[in-house]
Amino acid sequence: MREAARVAAEQAQKDRDANRNPSDTTHNDTVNPKGSQSGKDEWWNDAKWWADTADKVSTAAGLLAAGFAVSCVFFPAAPVLGSIAAVCLGVSVLAAGVSAIATGIEYGFTSGEFASSAGRAALGLLTRGGGRAAATVAKPVVRTVEKAAGAASKLLYDLVS
What we know:
Elements lengths: L1 H16 L29 H24 L7 H30 L4 H15 L4 H30 L1
């Protein structure tokens, strides 16, 4: 330990004499997820990656569940297609839950992102896996209703004026 301390003191004196700051390096000019450790953060440590991936899996499985459920009208294949639809539904709901929890970890459980993700997960439970698809379809419908309400309001105002 004495030798290590002596070497460190000599290096510090050399740095002072050369007017060099040892912390002024290119490694310290970037944001490093692991702090001062070298290397980069693994993908499995990132809650945002888990949230985004689980959300995509939930959406895909929900759409597959809906497709297989609709195809159950073909009676001979209904037991098989219904079973596949049920499995896809379970995967969709589970992935939506994982996405909501990972979003809460990434952004905080009081954030708007978490509220949105948890709302989609709840909607997925109610619509049997169609939460993301229903949320996607709802946005243009809401915009259209808002435009129609604005046009009706303007028309009514013009009639009264």
